[in-house]
Records
---
Amino acid sequence: MKPDAMTAAPADAAARKAIKPVVCYPVEMLPRPELAAYRALRDDLELVETIVVPPREAATWTVPAGHFCRIVCSEGAQVGDLNLFNANDLKERFYSGKTRALNGTHVGLGDQLFSSFPYLRPIATITHDTLDWYGFDEFGGAVHDVIGTRCDPYTHNLLSHGGQYHHCCHSNLTRALARKTGMTPREAEGYVHDVLNVFMCTGFTRDTGQYFMKASPVRPGDYLEFFAEIDLLGCMSACPGGDCSSEHSSDTAKCYPMVVEIHRAKARPAGWAPPPVNGYDGTHGL
């Protein structure tokens, strides 16, 4: 929270504040997916794998390029913290900051999830969202944010004056990735990154600019679906905060499992090709 101002406002304070904002990244030239070509395949998908993510735990799965992945609310309101990696090169992973800069604070139908430098390319395209009706509420809240980082044991330690808690999403993701790859937890932790908060309803308070959460509007049967642009390794934690209506990193919040479904399409989207890695030459002016 910002303290009360110590500096007297200048005479032109109102004029300075009245300057109109400029969007940092105009995206008119950004290549956009032909969403209709993706959605044309959705009526004839074959379910090939189902993964259950236990409450307060995480699980991993793979999505071959050209397949669809659905994250499903199966039993009760529950949010999930999602990491995505290039299944063939874990150094390429979901980049929430650049995804936020290009799409906005929350993602939905037609948005693409971008990978980290030096790759910076779309690795997944959101093709369906049963919560797209929610939009932004009167508090400025919306679902599927790319602004939160993930609940973690380090922040918990700071805020609880030394407490140790191991079922926060960061630790859940670390354990699951370590199991999948054979890395030690310390090694795996270095690959865990800022998440897409699936189903989580969040925003920033208008008076103090603080990150807030509120009860997720998700209900059993709701799902977020994306198309894998490259071979993906997914890793998701069913957050120990449940629907995040009161707290996260908790053993008392009511939590539910989440389901991940992998669907095979009978064809590729018309005109589709896997996105190449970013074309910047990497010389950085030297």
Note: The helical segments are 13-17, 35-39, 96-103, 153-159, 169-181, 185-189.
---
Amino acid sequence: MTAVAVTTPEAEYLLELRIPARSDRMVMVRDLVRSAARFCGFDEAGAHDIVLAVGEACQNVILHAYEGRGDGPILLDILQNADSIILRVTDFGPAVAPAAVQPRALRDLRPGGLGTYFIQNLMDTTDFGRSPSGVGNVLQMSKKKDPSK
């Protein structure tokens, strides 16, 4: 597993958030992410996509990294650069091999398991790997402010 780079050239930090890995906190997270996306210039549809991707990533941390216990933190960093919003979701659970974090086939009809599919299709880039500290996992996602550029 590789470490995810935590530096982003010419990026400005907008928000650093540390929350307990509990589903009842996701309402606040979604509101903050929507506000950050709108601040960066995304329209409501673009902000909705970003909120959905971050929500799916956080739910995966809650369910898989911490097995629903709610006893671990989720770190959410939101940055922007000239053309993108960058979101980084970090957990401190057991390391996961990036190859194990793959979307299942859409023809495999059953509840759940589509979070990584949504994340990969809603965002322009996704990079998953071990935290640079060596403890936990990091998902870094980005979405261009104007995809036509």
Note: The two ends are 32 Å apart (CA to CA).
---
Amino acid sequence: MPLDPALNSLGFAKPPSETRVVVAMSGGVDSSVVAAQLAEEGYDVVGVTLQLYDHGAALAKKGACCAGRDIHDARRVAEEMGFPHYVLDYENIFRDAVIDEFADSYLAGATPVPCIRCNERVKFKDLLETARDLDADCMATGHYIQRKMGSDGPELHCAADANRDQSYFLFSTTPEQLDYLRFPLGHLPSKDATRALAARYGLSVADKPDSQDICFVPNGNYASVIEKLRPGAAEPGEIVDHEGNVLGAHRGVIHYTIGQRRGLGIGGLADPLYVVKLDVENRRVIVGPKDMLATRRVPVREINWLGDAPFTDAAEHHVAVKVRSTRPPTEAIIRPISATEAEVELAVAEEGVSPGQACVFYDPDSSRILGGGWIWKGA
């Protein structure tokens, strides 16, 4: 909340009725509550929903955002609350900016996180520009993250509810984007509080289940999507140990991820084996004991730094980092190589650190997010 009583709840020195805000509406309960709350407060709300892939295929799909049903739900909320709503066809943009890279990086043996790229390249880039074109003062979303004003401008902070925090997926938000964005749900104590607001506003989506899957990956089956996008990608090959001994055969590298144990089809061994490396060029899945998964050194590039001083001003940054969305932050040292590249040294070795995942930086003494980058194999 703003400290200056002359500012409205979105931080502008004018009445809500004179403040236009574009709300990115996925059709779920979170963004619907944001739109309803702002409309009730008297803001000039404009709802926008993105059609990100084939509408016909989407109509029969459940468990993912931005499908045909979700577009209908978003439109219905806008009608209920009395503000305009637009559906924008971003299918080509989404495929070029997100889906193609997802397929290519997966084929290269990485474990991509397309939701981050979608926020970075579509929602907080193209959609944000659309909001500006609509003369909006800001754009609001239903993400669980907080924007707080610091001494040097707006800062990105974790959500009050650690169980809902989405900072891992929003680390690439730039200072310029952060200046324009608002996250009205970040301070709420729980998802139950969001649903209570939805019920209070009488929204038809108050009890709608949360989306679970990546929107273009039905039932979490990455491999089937890759095979459709890149025919011939699922070529069989050998499963070998770290010394090159052939232990079995696989039905395509795309069916495996770093750290995987189940489904290898090489049972009967004294100790369990895990996927420790994917050799895409030679179509080999390399397996080894669990301790081979552990690493303390993580090469990171495409860094987005949100600290106050320039990233390269210090030889080392003592921070906490997440190398996987489901893990809590752990103590680490970042050593910059350039403004966008660094080596991260973990205080305690992590298992299954995979190229294609994000490494997100946190201030160890507060809730602030200091940015992050993409894990890669290194030079």
Note: The chain has a mean pLDDT of 91.
---
Amino acid sequence: MDPHFLNEHDKSSPEISRKSGQEATLEPLELGQRVRAIRLSQNLTLEEASQRTGLARSTLSKIENEQISPTFTAVNKLVHGLGIDIPQLFAQPSSDSRASGRRDITRAGEGKPHPTPTYEHELLATELSQKKMVPFRTRVHARSFDDFPDWVRHDGEEFLYVISGSILFYTEFYEPVELFEGDSAYYDCTMGHALVSTSEEDAVCLWVTA
């Protein structure tokens, strides 16, 4: 079970390089090899890939030969120009990997309920064991940070997405920030955190913990 449910009242507690005045760049991570492999798999010359992505032929060549690290803008051009998803650019299945065939479908309203004084959790994909991530839908009952006896904290990282309503997102090392429908956050959840509804109706959020 996710530590959100176990530790809500427990009181224990791709690298990016930035150069001054320049856009952030992505560390190599064998990215050049991936770009070349994807380009060749589509039978594209450097010139053709340049036309599709809008990147200069020389820039593509330098990226493929690990002579430069692409900026985020360049990565976006590669993704759109080559018609791929970002994960395809940064990782590929190992040659001996096989699909496990694991799958779990949770129908609307059929998740496993887990109410707490501040949140009403609905655990999703509960038929799968040893998941690499834990998804759950949450209705936020809390209306004040004082509703929590202490920070919620646990191991791992977490993704938060506001489905409806609005929340005040409290984190231990930052000022509270209000998030609205469609807003999201990704954070280290060993850092104390908590959600408070600010909309007239209780906010509803999706959480994914890994």
Note: The longest strand covers residues 157-164.
